[in-house]
Amino acid sequence: MKLTDFDGEEPEEEKETLEDKLKDKDLQEVVDMIANCEKCRLHENRTNPVPGEGPENAAIMLIGEGPGENEDEQGRPFVGSAGKKLDECLEKAGINREKIFISNTVKCRPPDNRDPYRDELRACHPYTERIVEIIDPKVIGLLGRVPTKRFLGKESITKVRGQKIENNGRVYIPMFHPAALRYKASREEQLVKDLRTLLDQI
Ligand code: SF4
What we know:
- This protein is α/β, with parallel strands linked by helices.
- About 40% of the residues lie in helices and about 10% in strands.
- The chain has one domain: Uracil-DNA Glycosylase, subunit E, CATH 3.40.470.
- The protein has a five-stranded mixed β-sheet with strand order 2-1-3-5-4, with helices on both faces.
- The longest helix has 18 residues, at about 120-135.
């Protein structure tokens, strides 16, 4: 009689990853999952998660860093002072905000507006990826250093801003975060220019 190879405990059933769980989910289901998410410490202090907003068939998507105080209160992206600046720049670039989809690398507000930690970015990334998959935009604008590092592995926003960069079959254009415009007036012009480049791709 052949002895069995197995001589111990039954192997643990393979755990279903967040990516597995998200695979067939539609946008509303992803939004619902985010609302109940406790995958990282940022859920502890959130008032409202901010999954993102915009039409599901948007050709342009913008991805920022994370919700601030106003966003946390309203559950909507870019509604505070940076959002106001973004709206102005979108208007100058000839882009209608209603027609684009806007989200963030983390969906819950980091305390005191600190940068999201690496483990928080990693934890939230499957949601962003699934949202990108569902929206399937022609081009994605990365607003600032955090999403640029997350999606393209580039450390310096100033070196890559305005460039069209292809990665995994998607087209990205890194650009300044609207909150960074207050440090240098010339950055506003650059953001408008980069938003126009975004528009040229569709
Ligand atoms: S930031 Fe993302 S991963 Fe963290 S709790 Fe919120 S939804 Fe979940």
